Amino acid sequence: MKIEGGCREVCEATEFVAIVSSGENGPHVVGNWGDYMRTLGVTEDTIILPAGHYRQTEQNIHKDNRVQLMVASKKVQGTRSVGQGYLITGTAEIIGSGDIVDTVKAKFPWARGALVIHVEQVNAQL
Ligand SMILES: Cc1cc2nc3c(=O)[nH]c(=O)nc-3n(C[C@H](O)[C@H](O)[C@H](O)COP(=O)(O)O)c2cc1C
What we know:
Elements: H1 5-13, E1 16-23, E2 26-33, H2 34-40, E3 46-51, H3 55-63, E4 66-77, E5 82-95, H4 99-107, E6 113-124
Antiparallel strand pairs: 1-2, 1-4, 3-6, 4-5, 5-6
């Protein structure tokens, strides 16, 4: 299962996205806004985010491209209570040119490129 059903509902509602990569100094967490993610469109297996900085993240994923993302919203019903979150696991790359980057820059003129997440697995948290 990738981004569909409950995970899609949470992606439609999450206020922010946490993105974790691994580097020589351990885990590295960066953020993005849920509405930026939605503006660029979430498909079943790809998330595209505007890259303004993400320099450390870029270094990390150059050596180990595995990343984990967390999205969550209290607007989505969880299994037992109000609120749901998803751990999204996949690989990432930062790209600096091409059609995807043209689309990103049209919407976010400050972006230097796109952080593209290739989703492999999603897991409900609550
Ligand atoms: C809610 C939120 C949204 C953010 N949005 C972006 C963004 O759209 N693009 C970006 O490059 N950094 C964004 N940042 C900043 C990153 O978390 C990070 O601090 C910065 O890009 C530096 O990344 P680096 O530590 O990998 O070099 C955001 C941070 C937060 C908390």
